[in-house]
Amino acid sequence: MQLLRNFATVGGYTMASRVLGFGRDILIAAALGAGPVADAFFVAFKLPNLFRRLFAEGAFNSAFVPLFARTRNEEGEEGGNIFASSVLSWLIVTLLAFTILAEIFTPFLIWGLAPGFSGEETIDITTFYTRICLPYLAAMSLVAFFSGILNTLNKFAMAAFAPVLLNVVLIGTLTLALFLGLDPPDAAFALSVGVFIAGIAQAVTLYAAVKRAGVKLTLSRPRPSPRLKRLLLLGIPGVAAGGITQINIVAGTIVASFWTGAVSHLYYADRLYQLPLGIVGIAIGVALLPDLSRRLAKGDVGGALWTQNRALEFALMLTLPAAAALIVVPLEIIVTLFERGAYERDDAAMTAAALSAYGFGLPAFVLIKVFSPSYFAREDTVTPMIFAGVSMVVNVGGAIGFAMLLAPQGLAHVGIAAATSLAGWINAICLFVGLVRRGDFRADATLAWRALGFLAAALALMIVATLVAQGLDAWFFASDTMTAALALLIVVGASAAIFAIVCEASGAMGVRDVLKALRRS
User: Which residues does 298 contact at the CB level (< 8 Å), separation at least 6?
Assistant: First the structure.
């Protein structure tokens, strides 16, 4: 029951954050469109946002949670507080130094993230926006640290709620910008300031939550220790392994910067497939790591295998229908959510093509989040890092090759999205095979049967969604946004119904069975 509650808590707040994020992106599309100013802001936001995804969504926890939990078990709460305080002292010093250097060398960071940007004006505004957003990077690292403490104490709510604050602040900023009629450059400046404010709000909120949880943190002169060395040794490969999807997206941004508008089209597509990834993959990854760590520490290998099977089952049940929908009706989704203001039909078509390519990789991205905790719980972050490196090579080579292949058709960004999906599958397969060879994962009969049922249901969903969307074609492409929204709701309702029917008929559903199994944990 506790595992299910943790899934629901993290997933629920993540869903709230992503839904608000959609509202934010709808407003961004209306205020900035998909031109040079939007490209400049998205690149400026990419660096700190990358750190949020790398650290706050599980990678930092892969190193910190097992060590913090072990310290509390061996030395009590006081020992845990001392260790956490030592980490905080080093973290603050490192972040201050890094932020100062980043502010000084911002133009070089811009060149690294978007080497294809040309024109002094474009580079100048990107540098300007980036320098305003950069402190958000430091704030997110602190948020990750505080989240690790709370997750170790089995308190997931506030850490999962923190990203909601970002979207609330940015939605307020965008609403004000649109109300005042700001032009795109001024609206992007206001957004950059909003990012800065949101970072501070999240860090302060989580510090207060840690304090309420009874953890006493103090600052002192940073001193080396064996545990800090261990944290560093685990943390560096953990970040690379846990955040490979985001690293691949950055690689895609670099390649996309050589084509005008490609960065923006990939951003909007990325935001859409990140919704199911965040709700399912990240929620399971964050909640699964402490559970597996506790079971393995007690020597309960059978219980750990059972938990992995049920987590994978839960992930497939929620991810396959989402991926199927993104593949077959991407244009209808994009038109309904984004087509207004400065964001036009051509932009929607370009974004939809990338979204469909990302849809093929969505199951792999979620599987990475499910398989990785099995390595992290055993304090093995090196093996996932090696697999991440392999997939990164595939992603970079594929992004360049596919982009150049599709560039004559104006679809370079679709090639980049396809390369990201391919790299995701390479990574997921390597993680799975590695676990099986080590004897750390075995699929039970229940998982195998239900996985086949979920796959059949997803195929049926694709057929029904396509037919219903074609029947409502005039509704989707009417000028009335509410009509398009109603059409999308009908498609979603029909798709959900057929998925549930096929799952029930095949014997795969059993949502009740899944919940009963999770309660036994």
Answer: none
3-class DSSP assignment, residue 183:
coil
The structural domain count of the chain equals: 1
What percent of the chain has pLDDT above 70?
89
- % residues pLDDT > 90 (the chain): 27
Please state the φ and ψ torsions of residue 486, each to the nearest 5 degrees.
Answer: -65, -40
Structure tokens at 147: 């989240």
Q: Which domain holds residue 328?
A: 2-519
Let me know how many helices (H) and strands (E) the chain has, helices first: 21, 0
Q: What share of the chain is helix, strand, coil (3-state, %, to 5)?
A: 85, 0, 15
Residue 405 has which token pair? Answer: 């292949």
**What six digits make up the tokens of 253?**
């941004």
Helix axes 2-32, 184-212, angle to 10 degrees: 160
Give the separation between CA 325 and CA 313, rounded to whole angstroms.
Answer: 19
**Residues paired with residue 343 on neighbouring β-strands, in sequence order:** 340
The reported pLDDT for the residue numbered 16 is 83
Contact of 252 with 416, CB cutoff 8 Å = yes
Instruction: Report the alpha-carbon distance of residue 152 to residue 83 in Å, rounded.
Output: 14
DSSP helix/strand/coil, 33: coil
- Report d(CA 521, CA 448) in Å as an integer: 20
At what angle are helices 135-152 and 60-104 packed, to 10 degrees?
A: 170
Tens digits of per-residue pLDDT, 455-470?
999 999 999 999 999 9
Sign for the CA dihedral angle at 323, 324, 328, 333 comes to: negative
Is residue 290 a contact partner of residue 65, using CB atoms and an 8 Å limit? yes
Cβ-count burial of 344 within 10 angstroms (0-12 exposed, 13-18 middle, 19+ buried)?
middle
Burial 32-61 (b: 16+ CB within 10 A, else e): bbbebbbbbbbbbbbbbbbbbbbbbbbbbb
| CA distances to 2, 153, 226 from 73, in Å | 20, 12, 17
> Residues near 257 by Cβ (< 8 Å), separated by ≥ 6?
39, 43, 113, 114, 115, 116, 117, 263
299 phi/psi in degrees, rounded to 5: 80, 15
Coil, helix or strand for 343?
strand
Q: What is the mean pLDDT of the chain?
A: 83
**CA 304 remoteness from chain centre:** 25
What are 411's two structure tokens?
């679809």
CA-closest candidate to residue 285, choices 160, 162, 164: 160
Structure tokens at 134: 């950069």
Q: What is the pLDDT of residue 513?
A: 58
Distances (CA, A) of 146 to 54, 58, 290: 15, 12, 15
> What phi and psi values does residue 439 have, to the nearest 5 degrees?
80, 15
**pTM of this structure:** 0.73
Tokens of 367: 């599987």
Are 138 and 96 in contact, with CB atoms under 8 Å apart?
Answer: yes
Question: d(Cα 182, Cα 144) in Å, to the nearest integer?
Answer: 34
Q: Residues 34, 120: contact at Cβ < 8 Å? A: no
